[in-house]
Design a protein that fits this description.
Length: about 1000
């Protein structure tokens, strides 16, 4: 088989192990050097051996590459691949429920990094391009390579990096090899869970004098976890300071703050300010069961021909139960708030008084589950056709699907409420927002009534068929040429259907449910972050923090509600309290992406004086066609069903209310690349690289159709649209790197990178009156009610009913709940929707930065250290005073902002020790604050993810009495760090999530 080019130094020759034959023949964790019997080869395993292999791969690469290798068969440095990848310079990760999920590299988000499995593009279950590393176990992984510079032979899509996950191949490590592991996991974030098991095993063997090989690996993991969240879950509404609530003037908007003495330090007319829509405390419990397996068969009938057949299976089941308590702010005139100074003014304390009482204190619950399932079958053939010509063929057909895995659907939310609230106030001065509800701590189980609910089913299916044919021709004295062609077909189907009841004003009567179903829990003792004490508040609302939450029995309440209450929304069970599988009645989107590529790359090695060098330059051609077919629901009427809620509806039924659309897109690119590497003195490498790369839009963005939420409010509705004609991001990349390998397992490196990026894809929010639905909450009747002196929404609704209830069939009483319902009439203004849609921009931007890394072992002491820091710059900062609003009578339009998201500095420090059968590693990871997004359901509002650091450890000991047996103890997030996001200012908290530490105790037996 064609070997990987590797110029070894004296140190590398004595210490390294043989690396993989190619990306299609990944390295095995315990590869052995086949050497003459008279030559002694020292093989180093464990932490030090893993780092030496990674260092050798970095050194011998054609560009800037980092890698992580298994310490032994079945023993990857971390149990989660994303957690391992974050130790690499320039790599940062996103976490879901405390576990590494997706990776960003050099400021480019997960969708702009190409993740491959054994050189193959894999389907994902999320509907995006980002691979979810939580779906794959690490025990069968031999190495992960992160290529930060591009070559013509690399597949496109990795603007930040191309990440290749390599699994075990038996013929790369002849003989019998096996490892079996068991682990007990204690996740401290769960309140209801217990210690859970993890089992893993890998078996590899070769037969018939090394001509046939088989490898089988499997793993099963259970995890029970939880989290506690404090949110302004529906976001903040932002306004220029001139906006108020004087409906007799010209500057009133729903959510505007009155200009009266109840506002302490009210924002000035030249400031901008934001108001919260809700405050929510949410508590989740989650159970995860992950199953992985892989079978590899290899056959090498002659030395020049090797065939590989493999099948990979991944399944990840997640069940979630949730409870929350919340108060919606209704933006009534009786607001009493204290404000920070401008120009970005935020409430330190925001409060509302409800003189007539009867506002709702909501307590919702959910019980739902999903299954992520992937299967991939692949065939690879490698043929050394002649001494100079090497050919390979690789084909795989892979499917990934996310589907509902719970009788209540892939998402569910059933809300109950007690209509006892006399006031609501939130102190935003601490890390955790503190909600105080007038009468909230006196709530009784008998007060609770069922309100609205949503039972949703959603499924995503992705299929990839990919054929790659690659070759290398070696000239006798003039280098070599790499060449190849590939065809990749990606099909994505996304479907969803919701059963939504809009009885947000409540149904039935108090006492409909057994009080025993509503056990009380506490709220305030669940959070460790700092909290305000309302010391800045001067109003009259209650400042007694809400501490009572009913952790009510979801199934008992759901079943009883289904018996008692009717509904026009019907699920598969025949009522409105279960999901539907009638996907054909709601949203369905199918997208096909067909890509063809060809490349040629010239490689040459030589010497400049005493300095060996290698150079690689080539060009890649990519051509892509996109076709999207969509069917989405449309609406033609809106009903004002409660104080703030407006339900959308359609006078049609079934397919009559769906809009179908067929859209296409296409693009092609020539992408040149150049890599130059030179060893200027022994053990000192200098690298320079230039390339042009593309980053394709994520699959969600190229879906067709426009969808809107079925529940709007007095400020309007929200929705999203896709754009199949989107073009990829384009980037011109320059890299320089210097690396000094000064000892047998030690090096220091510094690198500079610059990416000139054009064709950015912005998710811009714009105002739309799509469907031209009459808005009853801002219609003619409301203006008449205001003129008659009705100031609050409830007063206006009552006036409209008293005046028109007997004559207008669009003004009625709902017989199921007794609430006034007002449907819009012709002549009312249309509801405004904030639609978020991706578009390409003509703007360009530069991302540049520095990467610093050091790896050092202190002689033979067993102690070692890794440290790295990545500094990233990305042009202008986001202007928090820019609201992204269109022009109006009193204000010019805000200029569009061209800023980059997900850009931040990162750092890692890993201290390690390994000797006398004992190993220990302490790892610290840090990521600075960064701009996460620039638009949400409430408009062009930013989301900042605050800086985060995490401390992990791993301790292992080899039992001398049993060769091959190791026991270990691991800890993740041992300092119980929390995550927090905010809006235009720190006090505009969006989400505070608290998880906890996770500990594992286990044993591994290897032979």
């Amino acid at each position: 088989m064609k070997p990987r080019t590797f110029r070894k130094t004296r140190i590398a020759t004595s210490l390294s192990v043989v690396l993989s034959a190619s990306t299609m023949m990944p390295a095995f964790a315990a590869d052995e050097v086949v050497a003459d019997e008279n030559i002694e080869v020292l093989q180093v395993t464990g932490i030090r051996g893993s780092l030496i292999k990674s260092m050798d791969l970095k050194r011998s690469s054609n560009g800037v590459v980092d890698a992580i290798n298994a310490e032994d068969i079945g023993k990857f440095p971390d149990s989660n691949l994303a957690e391992s990848l974050q130790r690499i310079t320039g790599v940062s990760i996103d976490r879901q429920n405390g576990e590494g999920s997706r990776v960003s590299v050099r400021g480019f988000g997960p969708d702009q990094n190409l993740v491959m499995l054994n050189g193959r593009q894999m389907p994902v279950t999320t509907g995006s391009r980002s691979f979810d590393f939580a779906n794959i176990a690490s025990e069968a992984i031999s190495a992960v390579e992160v290529e930060k510079t591009s070559q013509a032979k690399n597949s496109t899509g990795g603007m930040g990096a191309t990440i290749n996950v390599l699994t075990h191949r038996p013929l790369s490590s002849p003989g019998l090899k096996a490892s079996f592991g068991v682990k007990a996991v204690d996740d401290t974030s769960t309140d209801e869970g217990s210690i859970t098991p993890e089992l893993s095993g890998i078996y590899s063997n070769t037969f018939a004098d090394g001509k046939f090989g088989i490898s089988i690996s499997a793993s099963y993991q259970e995890r029970e976890s939880g989290n506690q969240q404090a949110q302004v879950g529906t976001g903040w509404r932002s306004f220029p300071g001139i906006v108020d609530q004087d409906w007799g003037g010209s500057n009133a908007e729903w959510g505007g703050v009155p200009k009266d003495d109840n506002q302490i330090n009210r924002p000035g007319e030249g400031d901008v300010y934001s108001v919260p829509q809700t405050t929510v405390y949410r508590f989740e419990e989650q159970q995860r069961a992950r199953t992985n397996g892989q079978l590899v068969l290899q056959y090498e009938p002659i030395d020049s021909l090797r065939a590989t057949l493999d099948y990979t299976y991944m399944q990840n089941d997640i069940d979630t139960q949730s409870h929350d308590v919340s108060a919606w702010f209704n933006f009534v005139p009786t607001q009493e708030s204290t404000w920070s100074d401008g120009p970005v003014s935020s409430p330190l304390v925001y409060s509302e008084i409800y003189p007539d009482g009867g506002a709702d204190l909501s307590m919702a619950a959910g019980d739902y589950g999903t299954r992520d399932e992937s299967g991939s079958i692949g065939f690879n053939l490698e043929w050394d056709a002649t001494d100079n010509l090497f050919l390979s063929l690789d084909y795989h057909s892979s499917v990934a699907e996310r589907s509902p895995n719970n009788k209540n659907g892939s998402s569910s939310n059933l809300s109950t409420a007690a209509f006892i609230r006399t006031s609501a106030a939130t102190d935003f001065t601490g890390d955790v927002p503190v909600l105080a509800v007038g009468g909230g701590n006196q709530v009784r189980p008998e007060d609770m009534r069922v309100t609205g609910s949503v039972f949703g089913n959603a499924r995503n299916k992705s299929e990839i068929d990919q054929l790659q044919i690659n070759g290398t021709y070696i000239f006798e004295e003039a280098g070599s040429i790499d060449f190849g062609i590939a065809a990749t077909d990606v099909n994505n189907l996304s479907q969803s259907v919701n059963v939504q009841r809009n009885d947000w004003g409540g149904v039935g009567a108090e006492g409909d449910f057994d009080p025993a179903w509503f056990p009380a829990g506490s709220v305030q003792d669940k959070f460790d972050g700092s909290q305000g004490d309302f010391s800045d508040y001067q109003g009259s609302a209650s400042i007694d923090p809400q501490d009572v939450i009913f952790l009510w029995d979801f199934e008992a309440v759901r079943a009883r509600a289904a018996e008692l209450y009717g509904s026009t929304a019907i699920g598969d069970c025949g009522n409105g309290f279960c999901p539907s599988t009638d996907y054909a009645s709601d949203t369905s989107r199918f997208t096909q992406e067909e890509s063809q590529s060809a490349y040629i790359q010239y490689n040459y090695e030589g010497d400049i004086g005493d300095m060996p060098f290698d150079v690689h330059f080539g060009v890649r051609y990519e051509q892509t066609d996109v076709e999207s077919n969509s069917a989405v629901s449309s609406y033609d009427e809106a009903t004002w069903i409660a104080e703030t809620e407006i339900a959308l509806g359609s006078s049609g039924s079934g397919n009559d209310n769906r809009v179908t659309q067929n859209q296409t897109g296409e693009y092609d690119y020539f992408l040149p690349s150049f890599n130059f590497n030179i060893e200027v003195v022994e053990d000192v490498m200098l690298r320079a690289a230039y390339s042009e790369t593309i980053g394709r839009p994520d699959y969600i963005s190229i879906q067709g159709g426009t969808t809107v939420g079925t529940l709007a409010n007095r400020g309007g509705g929200s929705g999203s649209a896709g754009n199949p004609s989107l073009l990829p991001l384009e980037s011109e990349n320059i890299d320089f790197s210097a690396e000094w390998y000064y000892d047998n397992a030690s090096y220091v490196s510094v690198g500079y990178f610059r990416k000139d990026v054009t064709n950015f894809i912005d998710n811009n929010a714009y105002n739309s009156d799509i469907y031209e639905i009459p808005d009853p909450s801002n219609g003619v009747y409301v203006q008449e009610a205001i003129a008659a002196g009705a100031t609050t929404a409830n007063e206006q609704r009552q006036w409209i009913y008293d005046t028109y209830g007997a004559t207008d069939p669009n003004v009625t009483i709902n017989p199921d709940n007794g609430n006034i319902e007002i449907t819009g009439n012709p002549g009312d203004p249309s509801i405004n929707f904030i639609i978020t849609a991706p578009t390409n921009t003509n703007e360009s931007s530069v991302i540049d930065g520095w990467e610093f890394a050091v790896q050092h072992f202190f002689g033979e002491s067993g102690f070692g250290l890794q440290a790295n820091y990545t500094l990233v710059n990305a042009g202008d900062d986001y202007d928090n005073t820019n609201l992204g609003r269109p022009d109006s009578v009193s204000r010019a339009a805000d200029a569009p902002q061209k800023v980059l998201t997900n850009i931040s500095d990162t750092a890692n420090i890993v201290a390690m020790y390994e000797d006398y059968g004992f190993s220990a590693r302490l790892a610290w990871n840090w990521r600075d604050e960064f701009l996460n997004s620039i638009g949400n359901d409430t408009g062009a509002n930013p989301t900042y993810t605050e800086e985060y650091s995490q401390l992990d450890f791993n301790i292992g000991y080899d039992i001398a009495a049993v060769e091959g047996l190791t026991v270990f103890f691991e800890g993740l997030n041992i300092t119980n760090e929390n995550t927090r996001t905010h809006g235009r200012s720190y006090t505009e908290v969006l989400n505070y999530t608290q998880t906890g530490a996770r500990y594992s105790l286990g044993a591994r037996y290897t032979f």
